[in-house]
Design goal:
rod-shaped; alpha+beta; 337 residues; Heat Shock Protein 90; 5-stranded mixed beta sheet; 2 domains; 7 strands
Amino acid sequence: MFSVRYRYVFIFLLSLYSYINIRVTVGTRLFDFELNSGFLFAVLAVVVLGVWELNRLAEKLVMPRVSRVHPLIILFLASMVNVVIVSTVSLFILYFFLGKPLDLNFTHWKLLTAFGFRVNLFLNCINAIVFFMNRLKKIQLEAEQLKKQNIEAQFEALRNQINPHFLFNCFNVLSTLVHKDAEASSKFIAQLSNVYRYLLYNQEKKIVTLKEELAFLDSYTYLLRTRFNDNLSIESKISDGLNQVMVAPASLQMLIENAIKHNIASKKSPLHILLQTEGEYIKVSNTLQKKEIEEESTKIGLNNIVSRYKLLTDKPVKIEKTEVQFTVKLPILYLEP
């Protein structure tokens, strides 16, 4: 506090306040003799200036040092010594300019020192308030940084779940296809390369544009159509005007993957998946035709999406289930300006 940028303005204002206060209470008789207004203001200003500046010097010496005693206590004790020094010097300066003998009058010294102690107590109280406010701000900033680091760590853990889960399923498809059609396998590998490139380039991102995600889905759904043919129908009714909004990377792909994993997709019972917008949400719904024997699940897909969106927005991921349809609604995200 003592090193504040505009300290001389505050010193002047405090001196002026002290002068007005003394003039109102005791007039110009601070001592047992009359002082004209100029000398009265000058001696008060010298005391305030001296106490402030010596405390500023003490603060620079005390605060950086580590001690078992609180630095504010040490600073206050040092400031009391500063008051005695400043009051004594100020009194002699006043005697000099008034032409009085330079003999220390204990009564005069006691009055000026008492004034100095009051000023010093006020300054130390303000300094303590500033000290603890700055410490509170620092603690809050550190807490925010720790919170941010924790969120980043959660994101990293969640991102690391995506690629192995996705690749495991893709390689299963490829291992089936490679023995049937070499040309189709080559095209499948090209599309798989596009998909993996997207995941690789966006794995460090929290959000991507919806346009990028839909382009990625084009390659991904090609892989699915290659495997399922007419057993699977994926339709997108998302308008082009929403292509600049944001989504979590691979979130739509994981919802499609989950729908296929947990539902029958056959010629007799084709699986229909529909992507569309509804208000401030992107809705992914599929016909509900649960498998009698479900595949072993790691419970990663949907939980991953819900966890990521909790870190991205206050809007919840909505999950709705009826007898014939399963729906997941993802909140639309926007870049902050």
